[in-house]
Amino acid sequence: MPSTVLVGAQWGDEGKGKITDLIASKYDYVVRYQGGNNAGHTVVHGDKKLALHLMPSGVMYENAIPVIGNGVVVDPGVLVKEMAMLQAEGISCKNLKISCDAHVIMPWHKDLDGADEKSLGEHKIGTTKRGIGPCYQDKAARKGIRIQDLFDEKIFRLKVETALKQKNPVLSKIYGLHTYTVEEICEEYLPYARILKPYMAETAHMLNSALREGKSVLFEGAQGTLLDIDHGTYPYVTSSSCCAGGAATGSGVGPVNIDRVLGIEKAYVTRVGGGPFPTEQRFPEDGGVGEEAETGELLCSVGHEFGVTTGRKRRCGWFDAVIARYAAEVNGLTDVALTKLDVLSAFDTIKVCVAYECNGKRYDYFPMQQSVLFHAKPIYEELPGWKGEDITACKSFEELPENAQKYVEHLEEITGVKISIVAVGPDRDQTIMRGW
Ligand code: IMP
């Protein structure tokens, strides 16, 4: 069984949770390698739906070891609550392994995330306000607090004291917010240390040893390619390496040990937060009118496009092959899982963006300059739909209506990657395997 990176190929929310849920049970380890509780995916447990934000979805399978890698930023309060929620549902967290090198989200990170956004006004990023950016900022500035620091009270106090010397004046003098004392931080965080200590592990060594023994590893990406700090639509991105390369740095496993990279793509595109989105079909409240607004509303309502973490309405648009080709390159995609194909059953005809046009120039590839992307006009192909045909019970590719098959094959052709999985509904069995 090879090791696989599962990565969002758009702006997040591509349905990674469902595909992870589908394949995770076959792996020995399931590893989160970046991001934090800004992620959110729903897993099905019996007749209940549970929302996971930080816990690797491997926790749902007795045989899989869930791992929080060094590249993740951990809000210990959230993790402890998530563990309690899972345990109350009868799901054991006993196999969880957490890297001692993962950074800790502190209360001031969350305050600063909110305050920064407020100060940006209309240019705000639209963050989840979970403290992700400010925590990675401190990590890069070499001022962060790591999980291992929680276990030595003397060191933890010293680090908090040092941090507060800088953070308190910023909180109070720049943003007019409340300040913290070392004592109150210790009171909140040291009990977390006692709960989390049994789960600490040398995760990089553990994973490398496992790979040497022929075990399989699934690297579970959060967010998506266009939210990647390097390859995304900067500055409208998250602060971590969501792309497949991040799996190596965020876990301590060398890239040669990664065999397959599975990109998750929705059959259309969604985005939350600000930033450019060429194929967006704006909602009326965002200035969309006529067919554009109708398409946006239909994609949102039929696709239930509301954030798991924030509850926000997601911006919606047609499939963008320029983005898909870019994601194929920067992640080295070997396969694609196409999700929510059933949502397109609501349309007479379906548009696919094959290139952009900006200032008289055609772009078949992802433009280097953000300003081009902001003003890019999509060049669409229009494909016949399969409106009214319910595809949610289709079990094989051949059972799909001819136009749905042609749509999938066309996407393969224009994006250059094999679509090995097609999802036609939210449940695990509403999935067509095509060689995965
Ligand atoms: P942050 O990760 O909270 O700093 O937010 C930065 C950007 O990433 C914002 O546009 C968020 O809406 C977006 N973002 C963060 N996490 C997710 C996710 O899981 N799905 C989709 N967008 C996300």
UniProtKB/TrEMBL annotation:
Gene Ontology molecular functions: adenylosuccinate synthase activity; GTP binding; magnesium ion binding
Residues bound to IMP: D13, E14, G15, K16, N38, A39, G40, H41, T128, R142, Q223, T238, R312
Entry binding sites for substrate: V308, T309, T310, G311, R312, K313, R314
Binding annotation for Mg(2+): D13, G40
Residues the record marks as active site: D13 (proton acceptor), H41 (proton donor), K139
Subcellular location: Cytoplasm
Catalytic activity: IMP + L-aspartate + GTP = N(6)-(1,2-dicarboxyethyl)-AMP + GDP + phosphate + 2 H(+)
EC number: 6.3.4.4
Swiss-Prot/TrEMBL cofactor(s): Mg(2+)
Pfam assignment, any one: Adenylsucc_synt
InterPro entries referenced in this protein's UniProt entry, alphabetically: Adenylosuccin_syn_GTP-bd, Adenylosuccin_syn_Lys_AS, Adenylosuccinate_synth_dom1, Adenylosuccinate_synth_dom2, Adenylosuccinate_synth_dom3, Adenylosuccinate_synthetase, P-loop_NTPase
Signal peptide limits: none
Metabolic or biological pathway: Purine metabolism; AMP biosynthesis via de novo pathway; AMP from IMP: step 1/2
Gene Ontology CC, one term: cytoplasm
The organism's place on the tree of life at top rank: Bacteria
UniProt binding sites for GTP: 12-18, 40-42, 314, 340-342, 423-425
Function: Plays an important role in the de novo pathway of purine nucleotide biosynthesis. Catalyzes the first committed step in the biosynthesis of AMP from IMP.
Family: Belongs to the adenylosuccinate synthetase family.
UniProt xrefs under NCBIfam families: PRK01117.1 (NF002223), purA (TIGR00184)
Protein name: Adenylosuccinate synthetase
Species for this entry: Ellagibacter isourolithinifaciens
